[in-house]
Design a protein that fits this description.
The chain is an all-alpha fold. The protein is 73% helix and 0% strand. The chain starts with a helix and ends in a 14-residue tail after the last helix. It comes from Lacrimispora amygdalina.
């Protein structure tokens, strides 16, 4: 009951502390003399976004604390889906292991539909939804690739393909 009632506030506080530490450590990185964007750019962006989202999580949980207390009292036993969690963990490990040798584009296009399928609700696993997941993964992969390549000027692992776009 304690986790159901205060869990989001604890997680929000933890991630606020973690992201603040990440931003402090990012500022300690040496400045780049070659590029406009230094090595601190991405860690700062991630730290700021994480801090804002963690603060929102903690704030909204605090705001709805009475409702959460009533929910926690009604629930007898939590439904935890260990099968999906284990499959997600294995998929992430395979993705990280294959990212460098196979490359970002191929690995991400293959990983995302499987991960989204595992996390999708059971009623969202029709043939139409699977096609939508595949299209989403291709579009998202190329958006991220071009954003990093041309926006941030960061080259992602090419792997088996050399891409000169």
């Amino acid at each position: 009951m304690f986790i159901k009632k205060y869990g989001d506030m604890i997680v929000g506080g933890f991630f606020m502390i973690l992201s603040a530490g990440m931003m402090i450590m990012a500022k300690m990185l040496p400045k780049s003399t070659i590029m406009e964007i230094g090595p601190d750019f991405m860690p700062m962006c991630i730290g700021i976004v994480t801090f804002v989202l963690a603060a929102a999580l903690a704030f909204f949980n605090l705001k709805n604390l009475k409702m959460r207390t009533a929910e926690a009292e009604k629930m007898e036993k939590e439904d935890l889906d260990y099968k999906r969690m284990l499959i997600s963990f294995i998929l992430i490990l395979v993705y990280v292991y294959l990212l460098q040798p196979v490359g970002f584009i191929v690995t991400t296009i293959l990983y995302l539909p499987f991960q989204m399928y595992v996390l999708a609700p059971d009623e969202k696993k029709t043939k139409k939804d699977i096609v939508q997941l595949a299209v989403t993964s291709v579009v998202f992969t190329f958006i991220v690739f071009f954003l990093f390549r041309y926006g941030f000027k960061i080259i992602l692992p090419a792997g088996i393909f050399t891409i000169n776009l």
